[in-house]
Inverse folding.
């Protein structure tokens, strides 16, 4: 199993990076390498790992849903009114119904079996949509109207709806008849009971997320049971997984919705804790993403695609364009979205992967007639919509959405901070270097050491390089020399290199240096649009 894990992580990582450098989404490389090292070709993945694929996928989906909840913006959702709610029900429902009717013509399914296929096809992939929407939020695309938040929320709700309908239909078709249930003196079939179950699972899922968020704040903040972010993450990740797997014991709430709700409520209850946990889940996702998509590629059965390739592509295209198109139109009716923003729903909300991989094979395993076709269509939807959706989301967002101001409290800060240490030949230079080093160590950042040399003093430059090498030995840094007016040169380099902060000395060790250095630091403070940190002797 250890060798299989290494194959998955290393091959998946480098395949994803290669795909990204070629301009494609990393998941394409991960899926392809999963196919290559899976049982159909190289067979480098052990049966034990493949047997645990469902559990590993469950962990990955839990991580990405927690990230989604921690990235939601309540104010933006409130601005949209019912748009997010409608996006959660209408597009998925209309696509499922269109697929059901079309499958009756193409594959001679009965309506319920066709609707079962529609539930598989209509579900959206959190593993593709969530990272895509969070990336758009980090870049500011569509944030003014809360479009990424609406898509995130709608995607989670639609998966809850379709998974509920799928499970009930699977049970009904597998038994050929459902057990009748008496509610308030009225006898109902499983299909008639469906609306009550949907409402119950949604309400209890929200309640469970609310309660667990409160418990996390109580344990991690109020009672201080943990001492560092690693321990915080162990508790938070464990709580999220518990919410999902406990549905096997108590199947009356949506575990996926509960996880997303827990992240959302954490922002409301304790924003600093939410920020720390969000950063931890970002780290977890870098590993979970590789495992999820490599195993997805390894479990796709390519041989089952041949007989249904053309009719399957037709079914997917009609369901997506006509079925979802109707749902998207009705969802955004009366909203303040422009026609370009409505068109963005096609690439932004089309990807299918995770849910299809999880439930596509269940009808065949349950012995339902047409199960092999459902499995083939599920695999086909993954191979077509997941890479296209991930690619198109990033390509068309700048063309169709407006760019707004990024809210750093709702998205993770990406990239390492860079500090500019402006030094001179005075003894204060060592203090500036130490301050920059301290900031970089605390934030895992980098340092640019800048010396404005108008005298061509090679000895002074060598001495400053030696001091920088001594103080910044364990930090990634770069030494630059520049000529010209000192304040202007410092500000120019800081802006050109997009540094996080400028660190500069305030006074020298002699009277004339206090005047000169004081004037330089004051000029930089007045000129620089970038924060300036002054260091005193």
């Amino acid at each position: 199993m250890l060798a299989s894990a290494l194959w998955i992580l290393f091959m998946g990582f480098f395949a994803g990076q290669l795909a990204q450098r070629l301009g494609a989404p990393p998941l394409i490389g991960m899926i392809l390498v999963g196919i290559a090292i899976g049982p159909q070709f190289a067979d480098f993945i052990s049966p034990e790992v493949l047997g645990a694929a469902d559990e590993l996928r469950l962990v990955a989906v839990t991580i990405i849903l927690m990230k989604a909840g921690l990235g939601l913006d309540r104010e933006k959702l409130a601005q949209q009114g019912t748009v997010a709610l409608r996006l959660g029900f209408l597009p998925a429902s209309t696509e499922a119904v269109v697929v059901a009717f079309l499958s009756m013509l193409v594959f001679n399914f009965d309506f319920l079996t066709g609707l079962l296929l529609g539930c598989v096809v209509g579900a959206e992939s959190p593993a593709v949509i969530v990272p895509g929407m969070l990336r758009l939020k980090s870049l500011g695309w569509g944030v003014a109207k809360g479009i990424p938040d609406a898509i995130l929320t709608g995607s989670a709700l639609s998966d809850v709806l379709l998974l509920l309908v799928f499970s009930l239909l699977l049970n009904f078709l597998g038994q050929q008849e459902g057990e009748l249930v008496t509610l308030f003196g009225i006898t109902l079939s499983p299909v008639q009971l469906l609306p009550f179950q949907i409402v119950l699972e949604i309400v209890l899922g929200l309640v469970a997320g609310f309660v667990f968020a409160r418990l996390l704040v109580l344990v991690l903040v109020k009672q201080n049971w943990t001492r560092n972010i690693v321990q915080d993450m162990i508790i938070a990740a464990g709580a999220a997984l518990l919410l999902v797997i406990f549905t096997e014991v108590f199947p009356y709430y949506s575990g996926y919705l509960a996880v997303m709700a827990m992240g959302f409520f954490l922002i409301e209850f304790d924003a600093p804790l939410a920020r720390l946990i969000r950063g931890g889940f970002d780290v977890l996702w870098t590993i979970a993403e590789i495992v999820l998509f490599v195993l997805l590629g390894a479990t796709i059965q390519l041989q089952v695609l041949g007989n249904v390739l053309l009719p399957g592509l037709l079914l997917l295209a009609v369901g997506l364009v006509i079925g979802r198109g109707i749902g998207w139109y009705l969802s955004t009716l009366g909203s303040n979205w422009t026609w370009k923003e409505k068109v963005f729903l096609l690439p932004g909300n089309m990807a299918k992967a995770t849910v299809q991989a999880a439930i596509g094979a269940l009808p065949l395993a349950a012995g339902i007639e047409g199960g092999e076709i459902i499995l083939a269509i599920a695999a086909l939807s993954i191979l077509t919509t997941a890479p296209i959706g991930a690619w198109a989301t990033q390509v068309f967002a700048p063309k169709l959405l407006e760019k707004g101001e990024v809210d750093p409290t709702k998205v993770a800060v990406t990239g390492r901070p860079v500090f500019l240490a402006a030094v001179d030949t005075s003894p204060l230079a060592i203090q500036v270097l130490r301050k920059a080093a301290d900031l970089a160590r605390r934030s895992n950042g980098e340092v640019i050491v800048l010396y404005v040399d108008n005298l061509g003093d090679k000895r002074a430059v060598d001495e400053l390089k030696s001091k920088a090498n001594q103080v910044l030995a364990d930090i990634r840094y770069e030494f630059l020399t520049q000529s010209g007016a000192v304040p202007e040169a410092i500000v120019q380099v800081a802006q050109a290199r997009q540094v996080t902060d400028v660190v500069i000395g305030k006074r020298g060790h002699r009277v004339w240096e206090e005047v000169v250095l004081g004037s330089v630091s004051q000029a930089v403070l007045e000129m620089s649009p970038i924060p300036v940190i002054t260091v005193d002797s």
Notes: Residues 508-517 have pLDDT under 50 and may be disordered.
